[in-house]
Structure formats: structure tokens, C-alpha cells
Amino acid sequence: MGSKSYDFFDQLRFFAGYCNTNSSDTLRLNGQCGIPFENIEDDVYLNDFRKRYCLDKYVKDTDEDTVRYILRWVFEILLHHSYIENTIHYTSSMDMIQKARQSRINLNCYCHAYVLRDALQSVGIAARLIYCLPINCDYFGNHVVVEFFDRRKRQWILVDPTYNIMFSDCGGNLLNLIAFRNEIITHRDVVIIDNNRFSTLNRNRDELFLEYLNMIVPLLIVLQYESVSQKKIKYYRLIPEKYMLPQQQFNGDIVY
Predict the structure, then answer these.
(1) How far apart, in whole angstroms, are the C-alpha atoms of residue 221 and residue 240?
(2) What are phi and psi of 84, to 5 degrees?
(3) How would you label 90-108 residue by residue, b for 16+ Cβ within 10 Å and e otherwise?
(4) 131 pairs with which residues across the strands?
(5) Are the C-beta atoms of 226 and 110 separated by less than 8 Å?
(6) Spatial distance between the Cα atoms of 233 and 231, rounded to a whole number of angstroms
(7) What global pTM score does this model have?
(8) What is the pLDDT along the chain (256 residues), one digit of tens a residue?
(9) In this structure, are residues 146 and 159 in contact, taking their beta carbons and an 8 Å threshold?
(10) How many other C-beta atoms are found inside a 10 Å radius of the C-beta of residue 211?
């Protein structure tokens, strides 16, 4: 990563650690993040979604290859080279895709993540949204990414559908969000894997990585995982141990 200093990097290092509470049996924060998760199964809407967009043609021999193809499909179907619409009224992922096409708008990161989550679940791959949040409201912004569960590797893997990229360490091992965060904090090298076919991002890798870091580092303090089943939506929020707030319930479990 070099010796370049980043805005908010010292803040991220200060808030590096999460501590376990009574949820320690399900949280393994130094390795894979074992947030409780429920996956939608046998859902009529997801079945219709898969058939409408012929997603079976993207299903490959491994979950990783399938995700690469569907990740690219989501990026391209939502890309219209116009302006970003931060707020739209929608009822489903199919509604988002239709409105993006009709109005020729680029949807925001939440919409990209929402569509990818549903697309992956429609072909049987568990996927969840993660909201990357700053330490407070002084910094304007947040970012939403996706993790999918690779059944062969038995691990969660991070993808960013807004940029159509994945992440690995120098050994080529794909990372989940906690591992990605830890690599940044400990000054290790992280590799951005550009999944674009006709890439406008195909520039110097160091330049691309620095640009992405400048965006994401301020937003890696509080992480909110979304678990969706047919019956409910539940959130699990990871808050750094040095974050001085009272313990409060937030539509689910707050984890310190």
C-alpha cells in the first residue's frame, strides 16, 4: 500500500477492534465473521426473477465463477451512463432494473447491492447486504456491499457490485469484509480484482486501489449486516469497542 497517508486512516486504526459479548459463540471477528444468517429459500419471487432474466445461463461449476458472471450482469444491466439517482420508489429488484432502464439512470450502491443479493439468492447462493458506516454523522456518506457464501471454500467473500470488483490478498485468497478491513489496518497488500469486460477502471492498479481506499476507509467503522428470511429482516451491527455509546437495541443485535 506504500507510505501514503489517508484521511481517516488513523481513525480506522483507532477503531480497529470489535470485542465479543454474549454473542462470542457466533462471532469470530479475527477470522471469518460468523454473523447469524438466514437465507431465503423456495421463494416464488426469486424463482420468477431468475427465469425473467435467464440467470441459469450464468451458473457455472463453482460459486465463485457463478458470482463473477452475475456480478458483471448486475453491473451492466444497471449501467446507463447518465446521472446517479440516490432515491427511487421501488417494490423489488425487478422494479429497480425496470426504472433504471426507463429513466436511463444509474442507481446508487444500495440498489446495486439489493439487485445482486436477490440475483445470487435466486440461483441458490447465499448472499447478504452489509452497510459500511462512518463513526458519526459529521462525515456524509455510507456504502453498501455484498458478501456471498462460497459453499466449496466454506467462507463468506466480499464483492462490491457498484464497482464490479472483488478483493484478494497477495496470495490470491478472496477476502470477506472483516479480512479486507484487517488487511488495510495492518498495512498488508490488498489486490482489487476488476471484473469489468469493457473496463473504464482498467488503469494503474495502485491508482485504482488508492481511489477506492479514499472512498471506503472512512466507512469501515460501524458495519451493519442484514439477514433476510421469508418472515423477517434482522440487522446485526458491529460497533468498535472504543465507540462510546450506550448499548441500545437496533432492530436486532448490537454487538460490541
Answers:
(1) 7
(2) -90, 125
(3) beebbebbebbeeeebbbb
(4) 144, 224
(5) no
(6) 7
(7) 0.84
(8) 444 444 678 888 888 888 654 343 444 443 445 677 777 776 899 999 999 999 999 999 999 999 999 999 999 998 865 566 666 667 788 988 988 888 788 888 999 999 999 999 999 999 999 999 987 765 667 999 999 999 999 999 999 999 999 999 989 999 999 999 999 998 888 888 888 876 655 556 667 778 888 889 999 998 999 987 766 788 888 888 877 654 444 455 544 4
(9) yes
(10) 14
C-alpha cell of 8?
481517516
User: In 3D, which of 15, 37, 19 has the Cα closest to residue 28?
Assistant: 19
| Residue 163: CA count within 13 A, CB half-sphere | 21
CB 237 within 8 A of CB 223: yes
Q: Judging by beta carbons within 10 Å of its beta carbon (0-12, 13-18, 19+), is residue 88 exposed, middle or buried?
A: middle
C-alpha cell at 164: 464490479
198-210 residues labelled b (16+ CB within 10 A) or e (exposed): eeebeeeeeebbe
User: Torsion angle, CA of 187/188/191/192, rounded to 10 degrees?
Assistant: -30
Residues 168 and 137 sit within 8 Å (Cβ to Cβ): no
Single out the residue of 186, 39, 125, 104 nearest to residue 178, CA to CA: 186
Strands 143-150 and 252-255: unpaired
DSSP string, 184-210: HHTT--EEEEE--SS-S--S-HHHHHH
User: Please, what is the end-to-end C-alpha distance for the chain in angstroms?
Assistant: 29
The Cα–Cα gap between 155 and 149 comes to 6
Alpha-carbon dihedral 21, 22, 23, 24, rounded to 10 degrees: 70
